[in-house]
Amino acid sequence: MECDVVPVGPYRMPRGGRDGVMHRSPDGVLSRLMHVDAEAVIVRAWPRSGSVRIRAEAPSHQTAATAVERMRFALGTDHDLRPFHRAFRRDRLLGPIMRRKPWLRPFRRPEPFEALAWAVCEQLIDGARAVDIQRGLVARHGRRSACGTLRDVPCADAVSRLSPAEVERCGMSPKRALTLVRAAREVASGRADLSRHEPAWRRLRTISGIGPWTIECLAYHGQGRDDQIPAGDLSYIKLVGRLAGLGRRATEDEVREFFAAYAPFAALAGTYLVHAAHGEVSPRSSFSGR
Length: 290
Prior knowledge:
Elements: E1 2-5, E2 23-24, E3 30-36, E4 39-48, E5 51-57, H1 61-75, H2 82-88, H3 94-100, H4 112-121, H5 127-141, H6 156-160, H7 164-168, H8 174-189, H9 197-204, H10 212-222, H11 234-243, H12 252-259, H13 266-278
Antiparallel strand pairs: 1-5, 2-3, 3-4, 4-5
Helix pairs in contact: 3-13, 4-8, 4-10, 11-12
């Protein structure tokens, strides 16, 4: 299956990921392996004049169509930023970065569980260490494509069958390994249905080791919730401390209070302001949340 998607508004293709899942070729083609139920799909995307072409190689048309929809979500081609821009284009902080980089979009994951699992990996450690853990999970437990060149992030069902010790061998601390396995079991069993946002968040919050930051990462990067800012990111804590004139790092509550003025686009506002302050530095280059 192959289709051309016209992005909503100004658009630029994202870079490939550092976790070894999304690959970018020298000519700009993004490739990754996905699974729809048990069926493997290789999805590729590349820019064309005024559009993005997405190709899905799958055993059935329905599986390919589902994979294309997931890739569209991950690439942000259908993410309509116009209401956000209209609301805040005259804002003294957001206006300049909106005019300079109107294509800015948050990175997203094609599966909500992927965002949840990677958020657990990223808790309270630096970005490079988190990437090493994620690569370890993909290498040890991710499913491989038939050609052997691509691997997918292990799904909730696969992680739910692992022991915490197996997850630890990927570099994760014992406590967080247990947290990840418990979260995967909640998702795999259906007790935490990630398509039902608030009920799933409440269920996941009963797990030791899952706090507001992890849920906010799941919401923003895996469920498309632009209102849920991951307030524990160190970049936001430093940024709000400076912008609000606190003379110190902000607390998570102070970050949320600062960005409440941008509701219902708090997370989008955070992404834009971090880019304005630090150029291309990701707002998740370091982590302090749980």
